[in-house]
Amino acid sequence: MRNIIILGAQWGDEGKGKIVDVFSEKFDIVARYQGGHNAGHTVFIGDRKFVLKLIPSGILRPGKQAVIGNGLVIDPAALVAEMDSLEKAGLPVSGNLFISNRAHVLFPAHRMMEKMSEARPGRVSIGTTSRGIGPCYEDKTARRGIRVAELLDPETFRAKYDAVMEEKIAIAKALDISEELDLAGVYREYERIAERIRPMVCDTAVLLNDAIRQGKSVLFEGAQGTMLDIDHGTYPFVTSSSASAGGACTGTGVAPTRISAVIGVSKAYITRVGGGPFPTEVLDGAGDRIRQRGNEFGSVTGRPRRCGWFDIPLLRYTAAINGFDSLVVTKLDVLDEFDNIPVCVAYRSGKKEITAIPPTVAEMQQLEPVYECLPGWKVSTFGISSYEQLPAAAREYLEFLENRTGVEVGCISTGPERNQTIVKPGSRFQDLVR
Length: 434
Ligand code: IMP
Hints:
Layout: E1 4-8, H1 16-23, E2 29-32, E3 41-45, E4 48-52, E5 65-68, E6 73-74, H2 76-88, E7 97-100, E8 104-105, H3 108-119, H4 133-141, H5 148-151, H6 154-174, H7 183-197, E9 201-202, H8 204-213, E10 218-221, H9 245-250, E11 261-267, E12 270-272, H10 285-293, E13 306-308, H11 312-322, E14 326-330, E15 340-349, E16 352-354, H12 361-366, E17 368-375, H13 392-405, E18 409-413, E19 421-423, H14 428-432
Parallel strand pairs: 1-10, 1-11, 2-5, 2-10, 5-7, 6-8, 7-9, 11-14, 14-18
Antiparallel strand pairs: 3-4, 12-13, 15-16, 15-17, 18-19
Helix pairs in contact: 3-4
The structure holds inosinic acid.
């Protein structure tokens, strides 16, 4: 049995898309388990760039099956646009993509509700991706959401659509929202899309469990990152789904006993988009340098990402939540030009030094990072694909992260291309992706 979870160890955008793409070659199925088209997984193959939002990166490997699990919220228009762009690039989708009949359907009304909650006086603005993700999950949790299976059943869809939209209109009226929704137009569009996706819809929990029973291997692909997890992240500055390892089970219907390992993906530094606490954020020139060198602008929204130094207590926290067996460190080359590289090893909270992550935003915002400074390597590591070729100071930096986080660094990414990747010889990681 070899079924592993690959997920974000920070606030998302860690480079999971590339890592999943590189190692999906060794697996039979790649399955997404949460989130929606708020995610943006960028993959470069030669001079072609693919930004996948809903469809798992495994789709880029011919012959692999890609699964959209029950834990996702699906905007059908976004899904079809992505399918079209892949097919236009010569990558067949139909026959390779399987969509859960239990995933939830996202509607334009969800975007309207989100605009309202983000802009309303007295509400905390989260700085969301404005895709309607939160309100769609709200409907799911409130037990009034519409699932893919219901979208495909014309009678049920008609009845539920009318009931759900009636409620949205009542809320919009009560809150004085003037945005007009073309309810009939959306209904017709969704009916048309339903027919297009019908052949791909199935009980993906059955598909995955049958495949596992037959000895096939599954790679579970997380979206966002653990610090954006609805339970374990920096609430309320989080996304509305379970981005941590537990989400892989609830979001696909595969039991924890069928999962063999969890791999965390982290940048060699750290970034965050949107609002919320960020202890190691660097607001001066070094932050701008990281942003420019790392091209740290959102792949879905284009927003500049907030940048900062690697945070050991935060990584230890996400390692514990997820039980990381190995860590992938991405974008090492972005740090190539720095003379010194600070790494946060603890926080100062009042007079105390702590390493735990506090549960409230107010407490987190009080934290001051305690840094240890490591020497930079000042030579290019771009594209290096063997551990021995890394400059000594870069290896020492990685070993420092490994020792202080307590998780092996089994893989390092030194550029966006598939071959710009190092698998550390003798690591657990090498064993997991063999
Ligand atoms: P939402 O997921 O659109 O509701 O946004 C909630 C928070 O999660 C915001 O801070 C977003 O910037 C952040 N977020 C959502 N998806 C991603 C992602 O794929 N990468 C990084 N941040 C994300």
